[in-house]
Design a protein that fits this description.
Largest sheet: 2 strands, antiparallel
Structural class: mainly alpha
Number of strands: 2
Number of domains: 2
Helix content: 25-40%
Distance between the termini: 66 Å
Strand content: under 5%
Length: 355
């Protein structure tokens, strides 16, 4: 009996696909035609394989080259997208059929070598396997200083029905949806909860530019490029901290008016690195934290301010075109918000940056 192939889904994660294509073209010695070919079955992949001999390894090779290019540019976002791409599910011949792993080529980058692609969610053992893949993805993202919560971007669809004559599963495929139709249509089934990811990366050495994730700070920083361990520069001051003004330091003047705030307000006047607390743009039912300027700091909302503050601090030097002094101050801003909740935490972070 001939089984109809599963319908295409290679453009389901179009946001990741586009990002990796940009990276790939920075330096493409193997002449891979497009990142999308790595997500196709072997017959279709052969049309854009370039100099890669094994179509089962085109997916890995594409991710590996994209990661190499991003690393050379010091692009943490790019490296993160390359890692997510490596973990995406490939098309297979039918619902429930696993894709073949790459065995003939070893990845140059150990971060890529540590990962494999998601498998069809209807295949045997896929639920546990895909969860393991996302767990490792989160750890690799954290180790390069990225946001490990983005690991769920690689999650796939709900399982389809084995033997479905349409081969449709629960998929989508839209090359025109820049956000990825799996996201836009709410079809992505995340492998891990936020707490599971934070627990998975808690012992990642070097996460966030040398700062172990989940350190002594109560905000459970993950992927933090700002060394939140520098608490001495921003003592949140139990009992002496005016929440509205976010006093930090023993007996020091209000941060918003003190040296830190005034020194940095001018540097950040054209770059809004503030955090908002309240109703969010991504439809979360409860109030939460999110960047005030999502065009600069594109991150989903979170109920833990540490997730947003660490992401902003990780990106601030590149996105705001400012020097190391702002990155140092961002460490203090994280500390200023540590232990506070709601709007008080957001106000403390913003005031410490002079915003």
């Amino acid at each position: 009996m001939r089984v109809k192939r599963e319908v295409p889904q290679e453009h389901a994660h179009e946001n990741i696909l586009r990002a990796v294509n940009v990276l790939l073209q920075l330096d493409n010695p193997d002449n891979i035609q497009d990142a999308v070919f790595g997500l196709l079955g072997n017959a279709a992949a052969a049309q854009g394989i370039g100099n890669i001999a094994d179509p089962d390894c085109l997916h890995q090779a594409t991710a590996d080259q994209a990661f190499t290019n991003a690393k050379a540019a010091g692009d943490v976002d790019g490296m993160t997208n390359a890692l997510i791409f490596r973990a995406l599910e490939r098309n297979t011949g039918s619902v429930g059929l696993k894709s073949v792993l790459c065995e003939s080529i070893k990845a140059v980058n150990p971060e890529i070598a540590a990962l494999t692609q998601h498998q069809d969610p209807a295949s045997d053992g896929a639920a546990e396997l895909n969860k393991q893949i996302t767990t490792e993805l989160a750890r690799q993202i954290a180790a390069i200083g990225g946001d490990p919560l983005l690991a769920n971007e690689a999650s796939t669809f709900a399982p389809g029905e084995i033997g479905d004559p349409t081969g449709a599963g629960n998929t989508c495929d839209d090359a025109d949806d820049a956000a990825g139709c799996i996201n836009s249509l709410g079809l992505r089934v995340d492998d891990l909860t936020e707490d599971e990811i934070l627990a998975a990366v808690a012992d990642v050495a070097g996460a966030g530019a040398g700062n172990a994730t989940g350190n002594a700070n109560a905000n459970n920083n993950t992927g933090n490029a700002c060394n939140a361990g520098n608490a001495g520069n921003a003592n949140k001051g139990k009992g002496n901290a005016n929440l509205g003004n976010a006093n930090v330091g023993k007996g020091n003047a209000n941060v918003g008016n003190a040296n830190v705030g005034n020194a940095n307000a001018g540097l950040l006047q054209n770059c809004n690195a503030a955090i908002n607390f309240g109703a969010t743009s991504d439809g979360r039912k409860e109030d939460a934290f999110e960047p005030a300027d999502l065009s600069l700091f594109n991150h989903g909302s979170a109920q833990n301010i540490g997730i947003i503050s660490s992401f902003i601090c990780q990106q601030i030097s590149n996105r705001c075109d400012v020097g190391a002094s702002i990155a140092t101050t961002c460490q203090s801003a994280i500390q200023a918000s540590t232990g506070l909740v709601g709007a008080a935490a957001a106000n403390a972070f913003n005031a410490a940056l002079g915003l």
